[in-house]
Amino acid sequence: MRAVLLATAPLLIGVALIMAGNGLQGSLLALRATLEGFPASVTGIIMSGYYAGFLFGSQLTPRIVERVGHVRVFAALAALASMAILIQAVFVYWESWTLFRALTGFCYSGLYVVIESWLNDRAANENRGRLLAFYTVIQAAAIASGQLMLNLDDPAGFQLFTLVAILISASVLPVLLVSAPMPRFGESRKLSLRTLYRLSPLGMIGTLGAGVTLSGFSGMGAVYARTIGFSVSEVSLYMALAVIGSAIFPWPLGWLADRFDRRRVITVLTTALALLCVAGLYLAEISRPGLLAVVFLYGGLSMPIYSLSVAHANDRLEPDQMVAASSSLMLAYGLGAILGPLTVGQAMVHLGPPGYFIYLASAHVLIGLFAVWRMIRRPS
């Protein structure tokens, strides 16, 4: 495992810088939109542009990687993402922000495809869970640090936009300047969602479900917390605890997933997450500290669903399928991420604030039942 981490260290350093930039710009744009007087509905349109671009990036990136390779694509997408945030600092209109937020989503989706196919090429089945868990920890820690950078300057100014661009641009340096073996992919084999489902049903459904639950939880979490009476500082704590939890739990869970059937680990996790949602329903009425503890645990246990589903899918793939598989998995995640906030929002409209946890609990139960069904259909 140590050799794998050393071999992927330059890429993981680049991941940390890119995700710090992503964490900062997400909070920065939402806050700046409020300062500019954009209505909440318009801000929602701007933020949804990210996932529209995300879907396109997941489909186009494998073709470009096949032609010019991982390193060049990584550098080009990072440069484009850096340009996008600087343009948003110059042209402060919701229409242009929506367009360039979609461009950012395109770039980040493509970067995920490059990064995750690269990591899966370096990993073996016996350490893939731990490597992807470590990758998840780095993502969460970097996003949290990026959000804290919001306090470094006035969001009404240009400086924080520049800092985002610097972080994204700097991510290219360790990848370009360190001599490390590149992924050995030739022409990638096409892999549609249908084919991916046939090869790894739980890998695809788990990734889709992770998109629904993670985006639903994070996208509507602040709305839920405010609806039940949290102050602004309490809302900030609510969201921060989930991110902190997501940085702590993936590594030990990845270690377990490398020693036991990943499907069993996913089943146990989804069961625990559903029970935490039920606990959240109860504690929201009687104990805010108890609810915050639930949020911390939920953040820690929900993030690994994605990495475990990706690892499970890649266990069943050939090396020349991994780029295309990463693209299809990103597509599945992106579709889920679009659905999450929309469907959680509808649940809250019809059921009130409890609809938030009721929906998330139901989603985790469905993922867990599907995992059990797959273990019955394919015992080993």
From TrEMBL:
The chain crosses the membrane at residues 40-61, 73-94, 100-119, 131-150, 156-178, 199-223, 235-253, 265-284, 290-311, 323-344, 356-376. GO terms for molecular function: transmembrane transporter activity. Residues 195-380 form the Major facilitator superfamily (MFS) profile domain. It comes from the Bacteria. The keyword Membrane applies. One of its GO terms (cellular component) is plasma membrane. Gene3D superfamilies: MFS general substrate transporter like domains (1.20.1250.20). The keyword Transmembrane helix applies. Pfam families: MFS_1, Sugar_tr. Keywords: Membrane, Transmembrane, Transmembrane helix. This is MFS transporter.
